[in-house]
UniProtKB/TrEMBL annotation, chain A:
SUPFAM superfamilies reported in the protein's UniProt record: N-terminal nucleophile aminohydrolases (Ntn hydrolases) (SSF56235)
Gene3D superfamilies documented for this protein: Glutamine Phosphoribosylpyrophosphate, subunit 1, domain 1
Propiece span(s): 1-60
Annotated organism of origin: Antribacter soli
Hydrolase is among the record's keywords: yes
Annotated Gene Ontology cellular component terms: cytoplasm; proteasome core complex, beta-subunit complex
Record comment: activity regulation: The formation of the proteasomal ATPase ARC-20S proteasome complex, likely via the docking of the C-termini of ARC into the intersubunit pockets in the alpha-rings, may trigger opening of the gate for substrate entry. Interconversion between the open-gate and close-gate conformations leads to a dynamic regulation of the 20S proteasome proteolysis activity.
Catalysed reactions listed for this entry: Cleavage of peptide bonds with very broad specificity
Protein name: Proteasome subunit beta
MF-aspect GO terms: threonine-type endopeptidase activity
GO biological process, one term: modification-dependent protein catabolic process
Main location per the UniProt record: cytoplasm
GN (gene name): prcB
Pathway: Protein degradation; proteasomal Pup-dependent pathway
From TrEMBL, chain B:
Region of interest (Disordered), residue spans: 193-220, 267-329
Matches recorded under Pfam families: Proteasome
Feature: compositional bias, Gly residues: 193-219
Regulation of activity: The formation of the proteasomal ATPase ARC-20S proteasome complex, likely via the docking of the C-termini of ARC into the intersubunit pockets in the alpha-rings, may trigger opening of the gate for substrate entry. Interconversion between the open-gate and close-gate conformations leads to a dynamic regulation of the 20S proteasome proteolysis activity.
GO process terms (BP): modification-dependent protein catabolic process; proteasomal protein catabolic process
Pathway it works in: Protein degradation; proteasomal Pup-dependent pathway
Protein name: Proteasome subunit alpha
The entry's keywords: Cytoplasm, Hydrolase, Proteasome
Quaternary structure and partners: The 20S proteasome core is composed of 14 alpha and 14 beta subunits that assemble into four stacked heptameric rings, resulting in a barrel-shaped structure. The two inner rings, each composed of seven catalytic beta subunits, are sandwiched by two outer rings, each composed of seven alpha subunits. The catalytic chamber with the active sites is on the inside of the barrel. Has a gated structure, the ends of the cylinder being occluded by the N-termini of the alpha-subunits. Is capped by the proteasome-associated ATPase, ARC.
Main location: cytoplasm
Family: Belongs to the peptidase T1A family.
């Protein structure tokens, strides 16, 4: 059945049943096999302990998020950036993977952990927000979106315990407060609001160190982009699973801003300039190298 | 022992059809019109929250007349159908044709098997890469599907209004033109449904021709430019478009000043001026108004309509004046 159209061609009763505005709830009710987390049952305990999950499937690594501007004033928002490397054990599985996505018009989600599950989870999360918006005719609040993502991560807990964890980072522009906000998660679906900046993934320790030194109150958008790229650069410096900017192949981190004007991905040309400035300064052994 | 009365199948179907038709004719009309940059939808609907026109998917929209609870249920089912299909396959695999078929089967089954047919009439429209690829499907209470070209009028006095549109509509019209046509037609159909339009345009709605309605609008100085040609207030209109040039989600509601500007554009310089609003669409490849939650940030150069010009524009407007007069007689 899969996508749940009966043989008669008419819409199944489940479609016409009044109920939730949530696509995930609908899916759990109507086609639970399509939910990412539900496959753990089929997997059973077989995979656990036999294979090292890290070498089983590609892993995505470092994501950083930076808030900027003064809440309530124009020019406020959040920046999210992710490197482009996916690893499988000690191998580089993909050097151009994208890990930062628009969740909806006013928020971005970045993923660390098992890439396959994470990408699917993001797809479902995007759809969840869009579905709500279409059914209800209004946007979810930013807290509502963040909670929804937490619930979806919780659904993945059985697989997380078997080693296929997904840890997202969520950043959005809060239309009510007029501010960029950042939320982090743990594998159990716990949701924590972070202030100023945050980082997740294998290189996050190093990125966080860099963010602490580079972030300052009242940054503007371009300053925040520079801080995010620089933090990723530092993470790539010390973490083998995080890729630095690849100037040879012209592969740069995915960087996006969310503001009152919506989600915007920073263009390649703009990023190239930022990266070149950072590289040039570090080559000269500048103070921040 | 009681014997059930024999009712011939012909009679049974006819009764059901009459019942559904009556229910649908009670409401206000919805007009769907293709224009050069996409497909426009318009209806008289004073509610801001209970929509008759909605987004189903990236390029697909839905419009309905009849009983609200019934078509709302179908709308939600359509959104679920589209989202599930897009999630299982790919976003590009969700088509208006598939959705129209699913709706047709559902309506048809209910018409035959349930004790009461659904008192609804639907339009499922999909905007394509070019106007030749636009698709407009009209579905009636018994599950009949019609592949329409260019325009659809349904609900209320659909036949009369449909003739007006047929006379005035032509391919390649600009957004402002089709909206003025739609509102003019809707205005001419007002007055008969119970409750009337009410509000500032109420005085004009009773009169048969747009000439009368137009003067009613002109005299309503308090309503200023927000009263449109058909005697309908902008606040009483529900208008939305599927814009071909928008990158992903093509659906956009037009409200407030944006709509008033489009409706008030001078009839004489239709071609260049009416291109203005639709040419904001190509610009939407650069950061543009997001298609979410109403139309935040939709900005357009105001057309600065003058109260005096308005009266003229009514006359120049396609499908106004005598055409309508003859139709309503």
């Amino acid at each position: 059945m899969g996508i749940g159209e009966g043989t008669s061609g008419r819409l199944p009763d489940a479609f016409l049943r009044p109920g939730s505005s949530s696509f995930v709830d609908f899916l759990a009710d109507h086609a639970p096999d399509l939910l990412p987390g539900r496959r753990a049952a089929a997997l059973g305990g077989a995979a656990a302990g036999v294979v090292n999950p890290a070498s089983l499937a590609p892993h995505a690594t470092t994501i950083v998020a930076v808030s900027y501007g003064t809440p309530g004033e124009p020019g406020t928002g959040a920046v999210m950036a992710g490197d482009r490397r996916a690893t499988m054990g000690s191998m580089i599985a993909n050097r151009a993977i994208e890990k930062v996505f628009p969740a909806d018009e006013f928020s971005a989600v970045g993923i660390a952990g098992t890439a396959g599950i994470a990408v699917e989870l993001v797809r479902l999360f995007q759809l969840e927000l869009e579905h709500f918006e279409k059914i209800e005719g209004s946007l979810l609040s930013l807290d509502g979106k963040a909670n929804r993502l937490g619930t979806m991560i919780r659904g993945n807990l059985p697989m997380a315990i078997q080693g296929l964890a997904v840890v997202p980072l969520f950043a959005g522009y809060d239309l009510d407060r007029g501010a960029g906000r950042i939320f982090s998660y743990d594998v159990t679906g716990g949701r924590y609001e972070e202030h100023e900046h945050y980082s997740v993934g294998s290189g996050s320790v190093f990125a966080r160190g860099a963010l602490k030194k580079l972030w300052q109150p009242g940054l503007d958008a371009s300053g925040a982009v520079r801080v995010a790229v620089e933090a990723l650069y530092d993470a790539a410096d010390d973490d083998s699973a995080t890729g630095g900017p690849d100037t040879v192949r012209r592969i740069y981190p995915v960087v996006a801003t969310v503001t009152a004007d919506g989600y915007r991905r920073i263009g390649e040309d703009e990023l190239e300039q930022v990266v070149e400035q950072i590289v040039a300064r570090r080559r000269q052994g500048g103070a921040l190298a | 022992m009681t014997m059930p009365f024999y009712v011939s199948p012909e009679q049974l179907m006819k009764d059901r059809a009459d019942f559904a038709r009556k229910g649908i004719a009670r409401g206000r009309s919805v007009v769907v019109l293709a224009y050069d940059g996409g497909i426009a939808f318009a209806t008289a609907n004073p509610s801001r929250a209970l929509h008759k026109i909605s987004e189903i998917y990236d390029r697909i929209a839905f419009a309905a007349v009849g009983k609200y609870n019934e078509f709302e249920n179908l709308r939600v089912a359509g959104v679920r159908y589209a989202d599930l299909r897009g999630y299982s396959y790919d976003r590009s695999d969700v088509t208006a044709r598939g959705l129209a078929n699913a709706y047709a089967q559902t309506l048809g089954t209910v018409f035959i098997t349930e004790s009461k047919p659904l008192e609804v009439e639907l339009v499922v429209a999909e905007v394509g890469a070019s106007s030749a690829q636009d698709q407009i499907y009209r579905l009636t209470y018994d599950g009949t599907v019609a592949d329409e070209h260019g325009y659809v009028v349904m609900g209320g006095k659909a036949e009369t209004l449909g003739r007006h549109v047929e006379e005035a509509w032509r391919p390649g019209m600009a957004l402002g033109e089709v909206l003025r046509l739609a509102v003019g037609v809707l205005g001419s159909g007002e007055g008969s449904p119970a409750g009337g339009a009410g509000g500032a345009g109420g005085a004009g709605t009773g009169s048969a021709g747009t000439a009368g309605a137009g003067s009613g609008a002109g005299s309503g100085a308090a309503a200023k430019a927000l009263v449109t040609g058909g005697g309908l207030d902008v606040a009483q209109l529900e208008v939305a478009v599927l814009e071909r040039a928008r990158p992903r989600r093509a659906f956009r509601r037009l409200t407030g000043q944006v709509l008033a500007d489009l409706l008030a554009e001078d009839g004489a310089d239709d071609a260049p001026d009416a291109d203005g609003p639709s040419s904001t669409a190509p610009g939407s490849t650069t950061p543009d108004a997001p298609p979410v939650g109403g139309t935040p940030g939709v900005k357009q150069a105001p057309a600065a309509p003058e109260a005096g010009d308005k009266g003229d524009s009514e006359g120049d407007k396609p499908g106004s004046g005598d055409e309508k007069e003859s139709g309503t007689d």
